[in-house]
Amino acid sequence: MPVSAPVGPASAASQASANLAAARTVDVAPIALATVAGRECPSLAARRAFLAHLHRAVRARLDDLVAAVSREIGKPEFETVTGDIMPLLASIRWHRRHLPKLLGERRLGGKAWWQLGQRHRVQRVPVGDVAIIATWNYPIQLLGIQVVQAIAAGNRVTVKPSERTPLTQAILLELVATACRDAGLPGDTLRTTPATRDAGARLLAERRFDHIVFTGSTAVGRAIADIAARTLTPTTLELSGHDSAFVLDDADAALAARAIWHAATMNAGQTCMAPRRALVLPKAYGAFVAELARLAAAARPLPLVDEAAAQRCAALADDAIARGARSLLATAEPPRGRHLRPLALVDCPTDAPLFDGDHFGPLLAVTPVADFETALALHASVGHALATSVFTRSVGAIRRDAARFGSSFVTINDCVLPTAHPAASIAGGGSSGWGASRGAAGLLALTREVTVSTTGRLRTPLEPPSDSVKTWMRRLASFPFSSLPPSQRPSASNHR
């Protein structure tokens, strides 16, 4: 499996975006869909066997995976085990258990009374050929679950590994390939490209896929959407969230501070669903800031993916301080190489770029807000919606208002950790992308529904009916079969 050496400190997102933009000029011929037509779909039993083999293989190579992640991006062993490997194993188990129910053939009930002798059954079949362009920040969990879903759905998969974690993902894909072989899946089930920056652009320019899955920056996601639109290829774009944590007046402010700080600093702040800002109401503000100050004082420098990322975070912090924000440390420490001490900037003005959250590192903007509606308006103005956190004792009210946050995941009195539920799906909104991944919705997105009907000897007559039958049918069509009570049914006068 060809891989490349880790990249230097240049901006991978900018370079990848440029490569994809250049790929738009390549002529893509209108070739036939790369579907499973003519290729027998692997049985559910074989796909469940693949999941069992992969589960054993990941556990057996846990030490190798942990060492590779540490070497390539500096993630501590504990975070790799809890944030990458454990969620992947939970997802594999969940898919193996629920695959027959989600993808098995089912009867379609509720047919109309005049569909005499007809029986309908629904099948879920693979979309065909799936491309996955992988990311690096959770190199085992994110790519692993995407590959699990694509293969469990019966598809062929081509993976472009991240140039930042080629060794880690080479090990993972080796385990996937072995599990496919041991389960008796077709030899073309998994293919890979080199783990280079331009391999994704070449892949999309040279080949036609039935679905594209991408995880990464909004800029590169837009470029991929542009390429896919030319051939009407469906996409799942998992782009970054710039989400908020709301701390309401009735919240346990100390608990909120601990949970938000943990989420903002886990994986060195390089988590798409981590909060970028805390919007804190007046009655909770003092206690929240006091607990946050204690946590920030104890923080130690964390390794970011490269020096450029650390420098960008430091520049955003300096800019926010120049605009009136206050560091909870005596000063904002400059980065040392790619290492940066986590920072909380309180009283952060809303016009500071830090407030917008377009960074990937251990920075948290803390902004006081007058009330919940003001906080909601500020949250909505950012335009990214992935996972939002709310701390309050009024749990029922937030459940009822969950849709107002615009996110696909709302955690109440917690941050990030509940999003790892193996049955939960994530679907970005706005500049955070589109399409579901993970859980039932993510699995079904990599299939298509086929309805097969069978008509027996008893059937709807095909010959033209007599006038009396036409009259009878007309009366029957207007018969009030509605389940509404008589008082709520429309009167005849409404249709004159």
List the helices and strands and how they pair.
Blueprint: H1 12-23, H2 44-60, H3 62-73, H4 77-103, E1 106-107, E2 118-126, E3 129-133, H5 141-152, E4 156-160, H6 166-182, E5 190-192, H7 199-206, E6 211-216, H8 218-230, E7 235-239, E8 244-247, H9 253-265, E9 277-280, H10 282-298, E10 302-303, H11 307-322, E11 326-327, E12 339-340, E13 343-346, H12 353-356, E14 363-368, H13 372-382, E15 384-385, E16 387-391, H14 395-400, E17 409-412, E18 426-427, E19 429-430, E20 433-434, E21 436-437, H15 439-444, E22 447-455, H16 467-477
Parallel strand pairs: 3-4, 3-6, 4-5, 6-7, 8-9, 8-16, 9-14, 13-14, 16-17
Antiparallel strand pairs: 1-2, 2-22, 7-20, 10-12, 11-13, 15-19, 18-21
Helix pairs in contact: 1-7, 1-8, 2-4, 2-6, 3-4, 3-6, 4-5, 9-10
